[in-house]
Amino acid sequence: MHLGSPGNVSQLNAEAPWDAFDPQAYVDHNYKRMIPEDREIISIVRDHFSDHFRITGDRPVRGIDVGAGANLYPAFCMLPWCDDITLLDRAEPNVRYLEAQRLSYDRDWDAFWNLLCEDGAYAALPGDPRKRFAEATQVEQGDLFALSDRPEHWSLGTMFFVAESLSTSHEEFRVAVERFLLSLAPGAPFAAAFMEHSEGYVVGDTHFPACDVGWPEIRSAIEVSADEFKMFTVGEPNAVRDGYSSMIVACGFRRGGNQTLGDR
């Protein structure tokens, strides 16, 4: 999440005012123009996915973006390889936003797709990307903590600025990362992004909680369910808003596959 905070008061996920989330305010603040941090994140994730599928040739696959919110570019990152992408979000306003964008997303998102198209796998996607996005995606209102109750496993996954941005609880952070990774099939590639040492954030006039996590906490949560992953620091302290130190991106594979990323 990229919006500022007046302070971090202890708050569990179930206590946060998710139905007051204003997706248009979030988009206006974050995605009306592409910031350098998102450019770097997209490039990292694009290369991770493209390199994997270039080697394996696996397609089509089923993807999921956990906590999609008002951010389309994680789903864009999965689009060349997926005939089916689940956009999962708990908040009713975000679900309505995603449903509207799924049919024909706003022009502001074109710059994000164009950046992805610097890689041939994205540029080679036939037809109109809006049509492809509409055909491949489905929006689902749901709780990431309930993913453990689902029998299906997705073969590609993203979770951007979610696990640390749903409560102040370190236990809920760890469980959120675990539920995301365990929703994926063994060996499935994934990408996740986090705000490091976030103090919470404001969307519109509403404050939302965040959990103060850094490299050790993120690494510890991921390595429980991932054999191979790399982590990257993106951006400078408070570059996007007050109250965080950097963004952290993790790319890897769900435990159980044979993929390698080299030294962590």
UniProtKB/TrEMBL annotation:
Keywords: Methyltransferase, S-adenosyl-L-methionine, Transferase
Gene3D superfamilies listed in its UniProt record: Vaccinia Virus protein VP39
Keyword S-adenosyl-L-methionine applies: yes
Pfam entry (one): NNMT_PNMT_TEMT
Record carries keyword S-adenosyl-L-methionine: yes
GO terms, biological process: methylation
Superkingdom as given in the UniProt entry: Bacteria
An annotated Gene Ontology molecular function: methyltransferase activity
PANTHER family: NICOTINAMIDE N-METHYLTRANSFERASE, NNMT/PNMT/TEMT FAMILY MEMBER
Protein name: SCO2525 family SAM-dependent methyltransferase
